[in-house]
Amino acid sequence: MTLGNYEIFIRVLVAGVLGAVVGLEREKRFKEAGLRTHFLVALGSAVMMIISKYGFNDILQEEGIGLDPSRVAAQIVSGVGFLGAGMILVQRRSIYGLTTAAGIWATAGIGMAIGAGMYELSIFGTILILVGLELLNRIFKFAIPKAYQLTVECLSTDSIKMVIENLTLHKFAIKDYRVKMENVDHTTKYILELHIQSKNPLEDNQLTQLLYKLNGVTAINFE
Description:
By secondary structure, this protein is an alpha+beta fold. It contains 8 helices and 6 strands, in the order H-H-H-H-E-E-H-H-E-H-E-E-H-E. The protein has helices at residues 5-27, 35-54, 57-60, 70-85, 98-115, 119-143, 157-169, 204-212; strands at residues 89-91, 94-96, 146-154, 173-184, 187-198, 217-222.
C-alpha cells in the first residue's frame, strides 16, 4: 500500500495538533516540557511511524525481501523513554517530573497511532490524557492529602517544639522529620525538616505567617 502526500501531511498535522493540545495543559502549569516539546514528540513519532509502515514499499517489491515495521515503533518507545527520564528530578526525598515524563511517553503513543492511521484511537487517547491530567487532578485534590516538604530554621529547641505543636493543632499530619544543628557566626541554629500532609491545608502564605509568629523561627522554605 502506498500513502499519498495529502494523507501523509494530514497525519503529521493531526499528530502535531493533538500533541500541542496535551502540551498546552502542561504549559499552563509551568512544567519543564510544554507545548513545543509535546508538539515535536507527537509529530516526530508520527513521521517515524509513517516511514516505518510505508517508507520501504519500493524495497519490498523486490523478491525475497521482508521487513518488520514494528521495530521502528519499538525504538520510538525506547527513545522517548530516555527523553522522559531527563524530565525526572530527585531532590532530597521528593521526586518531580514523573507526570510530565509519562505525558511525553503517552504523547509519543498518540503520534504513533496517527502515523499508523488510527485516528479514532489517537483522538480518544488524547481526550483520556487530558482527563487524567486535568479532571483527575481536581477530583483527587480534595480526596488525597496535600503533601509538603517544609524546612524551618529555629534558634532553639523550644521553637522546634512550638512549630510541631502548631502544625498538629492545625491538623497537619507529620509523616517524618529530622533536626540538624548548624553554627553560623558563633550562633547555633536548628534546621527542622518535615514531611507533612493535610486534607484541608492552609495556603502557603497562611502557613508561613502562622509559623513566623512563633518565637525563634527565622526562616521557612517550602518544596
